[in-house]
């Protein structure tokens, strides 16, 4: 670790939320597994059966609303509070709000958020944990039937990519936590960060597919390994 580091970027994925009990797209016992991706997570499915897709995300909201951040989320928030002179950003693939609940800021949800709705007509984004329906009226442009869960469906472009690209190119330390390394564009973020000179760490349960791009590998549950690492960072930089 370099003591001159001024800008730290975290990339977090499903693995960090799994330790809070949230199932993921790819887990075998998860909520997702009871539905086919092409029925609930593509824009074609939404155009074909908007109410069915809304019901699916409506059914997910209570679990995600109740979920609590774990030691890994809390340690990142602690780092942001302790190292006030550093820029510390979080790019997350997760649609839950566990980083927010942990007290973090500078969070970029590239796959959207479960507690947001977007209007396909005017682009207005609203926050809510309430149920949404295909008959809902946009609070901004007042058209009916254009409200979509603000979740990036397969085939759609991830959000905030311009900001994310800038973060990756300017960070000194890139720390990936609980991502499989197979879902693009996030799987390529480590390459950009490393190309532009960042030191790179991965925290994962096992080796990832783009493993060779990381300078350091820490295997195990992030809820155990990350707080220890963050304590060391804080001690070094303070
Ligand atoms: Zn609208």
Description:
α6 links the parallel β2 and β3. 34% of the residues lie in helices and 19% in strands. The mean pLDDT is 91. The strands form two sheets. Strands 3-2-1-7-8-9 form a six-stranded parallel β-sheet, with helices on both faces. Strands 5-4-6 form a three-stranded antiparallel β-sheet. The protein has two domains: 149 residues, TPP-binding domain (Rossmann fold); 84 residues, SIR2/SIRT2 'Small Domain' (2-Layer Sandwich), CATH 3.30.1600.10. It is α/β, with parallel strands linked by helices. It is elongated, with a radius of gyration of 18 Å. It contains nine helices and nine strands. It binds zinc ion. The site of zinc ion (ZN) has 9 residues, from loops. Zinc ion binds next to loops.
Condensed summary:
Strands 3-2-1-7-8-9 form a 6-stranded parallel beta sheet, with helices on both faces. A 3-stranded antiparallel beta sheet has the order 5-4-6.
CATH architecture of the largest domain: 3-Layer(aba) Sandwich
Query: Count of helical segments?
Result: 9
Tell me the radius of gyration.
18 Å
Would you identify the regions where 5 or more consecutive residues have pLDDT less than 50?
none
Strand content: 15-25%
CATH class term of the largest domain:
Alpha Beta
SSE pattern = EHHHHHEHEEEEHEHEEH
CATH topology of the largest domain, anyone?
Rossmann fold
What is the residue-mean pLDDT, rounded to a whole number?
Answer: 91
How many domains? The number is 2
Mind summarizing the main beta sheet?
A: 6 strands, parallel
Proportion of residues in helical segments: 25-40%
């Amino acid at each position: 670790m370099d003591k001159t580091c001024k800008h730290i970027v975290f990339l977090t994925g499903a693995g960090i939320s799994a330790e809070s009990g949230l199932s993921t797209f790819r887990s075998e016992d998860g909520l997702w597994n009871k539905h086919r991706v092409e029925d609930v997570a593509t824009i074609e499915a939404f155009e074909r059966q908007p109410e069915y897709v809304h019901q699916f995300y409506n059914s997910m909201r209570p679990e995600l609303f109740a979920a609590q951040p774990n030691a890994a989320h809390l340690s990142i928030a602690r780092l942001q509070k302790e190292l006030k002179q550093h820029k510390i950003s979080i790019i997350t693939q997760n649609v839950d709000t566990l980083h927010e609940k942990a007290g973090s800021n500078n969070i970029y949800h590239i796959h959207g958020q479960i507690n947001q709705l977007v209007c396909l007509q005017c682009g207005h984004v609203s926050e809510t944990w309430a149920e949404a329906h295909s008959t809902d009226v946009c609070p901004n442009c007042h058209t009916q039937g254009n409200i979509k869960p603000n979740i990036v469906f397969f085939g759609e472009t991830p959000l905030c990519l311009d900001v994310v690209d800038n973060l990756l190119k300017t960070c000194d330390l890139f720390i990936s936590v609980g991502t499989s390394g197979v879902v693009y564009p996030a799987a390529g973020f480590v390459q950009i960060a490393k190309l532009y000179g960042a030191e790179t760490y991965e925290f994962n349960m096992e080796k990832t597919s783009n493993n060779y791009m990381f300078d350091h590998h820490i295997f195990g549950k992030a809820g155990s390994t990350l707080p220890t690492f963050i304590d060391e960072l804080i001690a070094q930089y303070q």
